[in-house]
Here is the input.
Amino acid sequence: MSNTKISDLTELVSVQTSDVLPIVDTLNDQTKKVTVGNVVATGLGAGVITTAKIADDAVTADKLANTAVTPGSYTLSSVTVDAQGRVTAASSGTAADTDKIVEGNTEAEVVDTGSDGHFKVTTEGTERVRVGPAGQLGLAGANYGTSGQVLTSGGASAAIAWVDASQTVVIVDGGNFANGSSIATTSTVINGGSFD
Here is the structure.
């Protein structure tokens, strides 16, 4: 086999771990042999090929491990990235309602249905106040009261309510309203019942 060029040798297609390769032992200045199995175990074994031995951009997408993420485009995405920078989870979100401001279960919303557009305020999941399409004020939804009713406070822990106007008449006498004074000196209360 002396004086034979390597390019003239026949290619070994089915390599066995017991096949041998010539190798130069530079420490002892000798030509020796090494088995393919030994080269694979010591030269290509786990941990032998380090990051420093891999050229930049040498690893292609086909060589990367697949993750559980479905390939594609995501809208208003929620993405999870692991410590190696891999996307391990992704999902599309829901677009925010631009006609609504929400914080917890409290919201303010503009509703335009074409014929019944209104603005409503909800607290603790229940509609409290509504301004209707004609500017009417509604309580707990489209409850606009009846003509002549007034709003009455329920105090610090109760909602306002529509109630019939009082039939009590107060006549103030003795004030001097002509010159800007609003101080009343006497008053008379007449409760005459129904005025119908």
Q: What stands out?
A: Residues 96-196 form one domain.
